[in-house]
Design goal:
Elements lengths: L19 H15 L7 H14 L12 E7 L3 H7 L4 E3 L6 E6 L2 H12 L6 E2 L2 E4 L9 E5 L3 E7 L5 E13 L4 E2 L13 H20 L6 H6 L3 H15 L18 E7 L5 E6 L20 E5 H4 L3 H7 L1
Antiparallel strand pairs: 1-8, 2-3, 3-7, 4-5, 5-6, 6-8, 7-8, 8-9, 10-11, 11-12
Length: 318
């Protein structure tokens, strides 16, 4: 008599652990769907808000000369709007379905828009956006939101919500020139001396913040905020880009095109750039000079990623 083979063991799969928080989230989404709503994380709305504000901060071109912005966002939650614009002044409203905020001072601009841009947009800080063209390796222009911005949240029919935002902004270039918004006749709007002082102070503060974020400010911007070392590195970056010889496809670089770093002199405060002195000298190198007298050994700021592969770097570290 043969013994019946034992049944093969069945594969068991661990049941997913469903937390009470997950159940609450699922119930919330189901209820919102039944009521005709869609739930999304608050961060999603804030990133979208910061992006829409930033995209309206642009340089003058064509018909875009007034330096003003007006746009709306659908289904932006009222409670989130109250949090985002908590530092603005609430204005009286004639309709219970409308909530309006006004940013009445430049200090409020810094608090309101600075909190919106923080962690939500890479090219914005404080009340300003860094404007960099594709043809330029450095940032030469900033756009700064001005006081007087108005924000309204309106509860429309059938649960639809809409957020309206209106503001003006100034453009500041690396030379310190301030370009103010224009009226309907394309004439720059007049500001008091006190207002202009506040705007320039805001621009300087934001420029320093943008530089601390690692954005490539121009040398003139760095000098405006009092950082000569970063200014020299910005000049070196522009020189390297503008004087870089064209690369011929398929042609190998000859040995005569290779140059050696003789000495590492110092590293900047962030540790990302090194001031180096090159071995030898040739008059054609003067195109890269940022300081020192003509004919003396050439010193330039170079990225640490390049310098740390040299013998001079190893000697400097020892």
């Amino acid at each position: 008599m043969s013994r019946r083979a034992a049944p093969a063991p069945t594969a068991t799969h661990p049941r997913p652990i469903v937390t009470s928080h997950a159940r609450k989230l699922e119930a919330m989404h189901e209820l919102a769907y039944e009521l005709g709503f869609f739930c999304a994380p608050a961060t999603t709305f804030m990133v979208d808000l910061a992006s829409k504000i930033a995209v309206h901060l642009k340089n003058r071109s064509g018909k875009v000369v007034y330096q003003s912005a007006a746009f709306s966002m659908e289904n932006f939650p009222l409670e989130l709007a109250r949090q985002a614009f908590a530092m603005a002044s609430v204005s009286p409203s004639t309709s219970p379905a409308t909530t309006t905020w006004t940013v009445t001072t430049q200090a409020q601009v810094q608090l309101v828009f600075g909190s919106i841009f923080e962690d939500h947009h890479a090219f914005c800080a404080g009340a300003s956006k860094a404007i960099q063209t594709k043809s330029q390796p450095v940032i030469r222009l900033l756009a700064t939101i001005l006081k007087g911005a108005e924000i309204s949240h309106v509860q429309l029919a059938r649960g639809v919500q809409r957020l309206y935002i209106n503001f003006q902004y100034a453009l500041s270039d690396e030379t310190g020139e301030l370009h103010l918004p224009k009226d309907n006749n394309r004439i720059e709007i007049a500001f008091s001396e006190a207002d202009l002082h506040e705007i320039r102070a805001q621009v300087a503060t934001d420029a320093a913040l943008l530089g601390m974020m690692g954005l490539p400010l121009s040398a003139k911007w760095w000098r405006q905020v009092g950082n000569e070392e970063e200014a020299q590195m910005a000049e070196a970056l522009v020189q390297n880009v503008s004087t870089q010889p064209p690369v011929v496809k398929g042609k190998r670089r000859q040995a005569k095109d290779r140059y050696n770093v003789e000495t590492v002199l110092k590293v900047n405060s962030t540790g990302n750039w090194a001031l180096v002195q090159w071995e030898g000298y040739h008059p054609s190198w003067e195109a890269w000079r940022i300081h020192g007298e003509e004919g003396t050994p050439l010193e330039t700021w170079e990225p640490k990623s390049f310098v740390q592969r040299t013998a001079a770097w190893r000697a400097w570290r020892s």
